[in-house]
Specification:
By secondary structure, this protein is an alpha/beta fold. It is built from eleven helices and eight strands. An eight-stranded parallel barrel has the order 1-2-3-4-5-6-7-8, surrounded by six helices. Helix 5 links the parallel strand 4 and strand 5. The longest helix has 15 residues. The chain is globular. The mean pLDDT is 98. Bound molecules: SN-glycerol-3-phosphate. The site of SN-glycerol-3-phosphate has 9 residues, from helix 7.
Length: 209
Amino acid sequence: MKFFVDTADLDDIQEANDMGILDGVTTNPSLVKEQGNVDFHEHVFKICEIVDGDVSAEVTATDFDGMMEEAHTLTQVHENVVVKIPLIKEGIKALRALDEEGIETNCTLCFSPSQALLAAKAGADYISPFLGRVDDISADGMTLVEEIREIYDNYDFETEILAASIRHPTHVKRAALAGADVATMPFETLIDLLDHPLTDRGLERFLAD
Ligand code: G3P
């Protein structure tokens, strides 16, 4: 399973990368906004210089031409940029066109298996089911990941399942059990994966001895 951090915070990305287990980064407009008044493209470039892996950067246009224009600009920023496209009708058209140009894409805002099927048909490289946000409305986000896995396996789709909107280590564990290809998580969740009281207690005892 690949590990991505879901953040635009350069210090957190650097720290995760220093652990030697980071495969990439996902950002979205809300995460970039948290960084204050930064230049978007410069900021994406800085992220790409830290991590040797895919870095998702999202378009904000909602029409085909606008998405294509933003995608072309983003791919000029760095070779590791993966263009994040929303799962709407114009987005499906853009995914198909970008695939034909050999531009890597991450289809975002996926909340149903049928949406994921469309994205794969359109040639998306990644599909991002937002499991935490599904949980937020009292449904089961992990069922979504499981069903997408089954559908993609039925037809040998190569689109990678990028479990997103992860909120805690149990999400990561269950996404791994469900066969998600990637988990993107907040930096805090990555650190929380380490936590176990018996590890702390055991280490304390070993060090005392
Ligand atoms: O980047 C997309 C996704 O991971 C957002 O997560 O916590 O805002 O639902 P969240």
